[in-house]
Amino acid sequence: MPRREQVTERLSAREGKHGTRLSAANAIPERLDQVVSEQAALGEALASLSEELRKLAKWLEETAGRVEALDTKVVTTQSCVVKHAALMRELARGSLETERRLEELENRVRARNVRVIGVPATVGETDLIPFLENLVLAYLGLNAKEAPMRIENAYRLPTREAGGSARVAGTGTVLMTLSDFWARERILRAARACRATKFQGPKVSFFPDLSPATHARRQRLVVLKQAFVKEGAQAYVLYPAKLKVLCRGQTYVFKDCASAARLLDEIRQERLTMALIRNRLGLLVLGVLVTFVLYLLLPAIQHERFTSRAGSHKAQARAEEKGQRDVNVTVLTGTIAGSPSILFREGFLLQRAGTPSPKRLEVVFLHGQAFTSKTWEDLGTLTLLSEEGYRSIAIDLPGYGNSPPSDAVSTEQGRVAFLQHVLKELGIQRPVLISPSMSGRYSVPFVLVHGAQLKGFVPIAPVGTQDYTAQQYQQVQTPTLIVYGERDTSLGAQSLQSLRQLPKHKAVALPDAGHACYLEKPREFHEALLAFLGELQ
Hints:
Layout: H1 3-109, E1 113-120, H2 128-140, E2 151-156, H3 159-162, E3 171-178, H4 181-193, E4 197-198, E5 203-208, H5 212-230, E6 234-238, E7 242-247, E8 250-254, H6 257-297, H7 301-325, E9 327-336, E10 342-351, E11 362-365, H8 373-379, H9 381-387, E12 391-395, H10 412-425, E13 432-436, H11 440-450, E14 456-460, H12 470-474, E15 480-485, H13 491-499, E16 505-510, H14 517-520, H15 522-536
Parallel strand pairs: 11-12, 11-13, 13-14, 14-15, 15-16
Antiparallel strand pairs: 1-3, 1-5, 2-3, 4-5, 6-7, 7-8, 9-10, 10-12
Helix pairs in contact: 5-6, 10-11
Region (Disordered): 1-21
Function: Possible role in granule neuron development.
Domain AB hydrolase-1: 363-441
């Protein structure tokens, strides 16, 4: 390339670089202006943000103040609620106290009043006071001059106010006001001793005049008293409406039913706990006893096997003897006519046709307090004696079983006459009389008076033996078998001491038996009875 052209290119290049520098220098002021404007906008934004932050801080401060004020109001409200609750409790206590005082005031107003239940409706309003004055004097057994009692007022109560207390038709309830409190107390003390009395017709009763609330509380306390007594505690209802309970070695007096009910629940829980403990101990003792008995009986098994072989020959001979007699026994019932009618059971011996009926000894069975003639049938005694050739009869005493009660046996002479009547109506002559427990009231005086009419006498721990002297017993010549249980240390031992005075007696103690020994040891009892009857024949 020519030199001129090279120089021209270099000059052009220099001019281009210089123009570029000039254009860059011209752009710097524009950028500075842009930066300044952006900085100003940023300052305005920061100022605006600062203003918003100040507003937010102020709002937060105001909110904190409001929250603090609200907390103060909440605390104040809670304090008011607590005060209100305390006031409500105080008001409730005051209300209860007011009700109690009103109830006491009402009972004081009624302090001289007495409710008379059973006053005849025929007594007019004008005649009520004279009628009641005579009734009170007769009820207390007083003389009008000796201790006058003035009745200020008396009027009949409507049926709804009387509370349905007049149970007898033609009678009603009268409220009488006495002149003084002590006259009322005297009448009520007599009323507690004697609940009712007859005066010119129906029965008349006296009761205190209590307010409805007191009367209702007293009725609830009466129910609680019965529950306490059922649990084994001593309880009394006091005037006007209090409950006194003696238990745990302490004395409790309750005016409200809730406290008494809580104590009752505690007693029941304790009783249940003690019952569980006793049951567990009983099971433990029973287990020990069973183990001990098994330990004692195991060595005797071989001996029992040996003796049973020897006893089987006697049982076989007895069965053959019954088979030869060809006997069959049935127990039938009948009624002895009279006032009252007496039910009896008799074992009948059914024999094969052509078999002669031997002359039989007659045996009459009485019974104890909790039993009837059915006891001797269920025990098999009537059947056994009939099989052995005896005439066996059991009767239901008056007021037991199917025999109605009778006032004729309320005296000793009446009971003796009753037995004579029974023997006569059944055609029995010189029987053997079996008499357990309660029936001693019939048999013992009969033996003392009419002992010659009996072939024999078998008392089983009878009652009433201590009512007679040794001289009375020593005059009886009737053969007697005294039966009692070894464990009957009360009535059995007592009757044995008296009956030993009989000249012709023998005693049999049934081993390990209590008062009703013939029920606990029937085999031993039957063996002793059959042996005694065999001696009488």
